[in-house]
Design a protein that fits this description.
The chain is an alpha+beta fold. It is about 20% helix and about 25% strand. Helix 1 packs antiparallel against helix 2. The protein is globular, with a radius of gyration of 18 Å.
């Protein structure tokens, strides 16, 4: 295992060969003069949930990801094709946290107020059509059905998760052909 921050372009090429996923490998190799991948920022979105385990199952099914922490208070979801370390953030998709648990940081929100006002959980998904089918199987409330976003030239589906957050599934940019 190569620690996060010390992955070389070759590591990504090896991963691409193993998984068949090659998006981004060329950009990583070309963007690092030393051949070492060391991102300056790694998003680690976290949302509060009423039922962490139920939300974990819902997101795992929707996004075809896996959970890595488990439990009733906290969960980490990641892409099994990208994750290489048990606590590293490579491949981390989303963190789930129970509303009523304050751990070391105190409360992170007020569960009596509306969740996610103005915030979208936006996921670019390579298997967009399959993800849309999974969203329909989950009977996720549809806010905006599959449509073409002309700015990114990709397809989107806007849905609501079990806690009321708006979730956007998007195909890769450039995926949608103009009609």
């Amino acid at each position: 295992m190569v620690p996060l921050g010390h992955r070389t372009a070759g590591d990504f090429e090896d991963s691409a060969a193993r998984t068949g996923k090659t998006r981004g490998v060329v950009q990583v190799a070309a963007s690092t003069a030393t051949g070492v991948y060391s991102p300056l920022v790694r998003a680690q979105p976290l949302i509060n949930c009423r039922d962490v385990q139920a939300s974990s199952r819902w997101y795992q099914r929707l996004l075809a990801c896996v959970g890595g922490h488990g439990g009733t208070e906290y969960e980490r979801l990641w892409d099994p094709n990208l994750h290489t370390s048990i606590w590293g953030s490579d491949g981390l998709i989303l963190q789930l946290h129970a509303w009523e648990v304050d751990h070391h940081h105190g409360p992170m929100g007020d569960p009596s107020r509306a969740v996610g006002n103005g915030m979208l959980l936006w996921f670019e998904i390579d298997d967009f059509d399959a993800a849309v089918a999974r969203a329909r199987e989950l009977e996720a409330p549809i806010l905006l059905d599959v449509h073409r976003n002309p700015n990114a030239n990709h397809r989107e589906l806007w849905i609501r998760d079990p806690d009321g957050y708006t979730v956007v599934l998007a195909s890769p940019d450039g995926d949608a052909k103009e009609a």
